[in-house]
Amino acid sequence: MENQEKGREKAPETKQKSPETKERAPELKEKAPEKKEKAPEKGAEKGAGKGKEKAPEKKAPEKPAEKAVDKDLKYFVRVRNTDLDGTRSVQIALTKIPGIGRITARAISSLAKVNPLDTMGKLDDAGVDRLRQVVDAYGPQVPPWMLNRPADPYTGEGKHLLSTDVLIGKEDDVNRMRKIRCYRGIRHETGQKVRGQRTKSTGRTGTTVGVKRKKE
Description:
By secondary structure, the protein is mainly alpha-helical.
């Protein structure tokens, strides 16, 4: 009898322990989603770290150094009714005048006692005046082989045409050849090539298109 009573007293103790296990189970269930939530956080941190490592650092473009403005520089120099570039050298700036090439420009600068390598805009007023005088009276100061018109057809004198005189002289020569009906004048009048170039395959004018074959 005593054993049965002891068994009965122990039985409720076991029943009371079972709810403790039930109470622990939800605690485990609650901890499980916490692990799931932490997993994406680690992946996000790794992805963010990789993105930072791969992304190259963009450097700001360096601004070009601004050139200092020279107050003493003249950007335009007027010679023989032509505006010359003041930022170029004398021998290059003078070639903008029609009728003056490299050799002529060097000859003019030497006659005017000006260094051909000096900047045109930095010359003093006396140097520019000397250049203007030499350009205006260039023909008589050089040998005949340096003139661009060594024998004028009307006067027979040697001349060196400059600026607008070059275009006017060319038009007069073409009109004179047309009037005397020479070969060059006729070719100019018809718009054909004048100096003996090939005309079979190039320089074709008119409305004809294609090639006509000879009839057999």
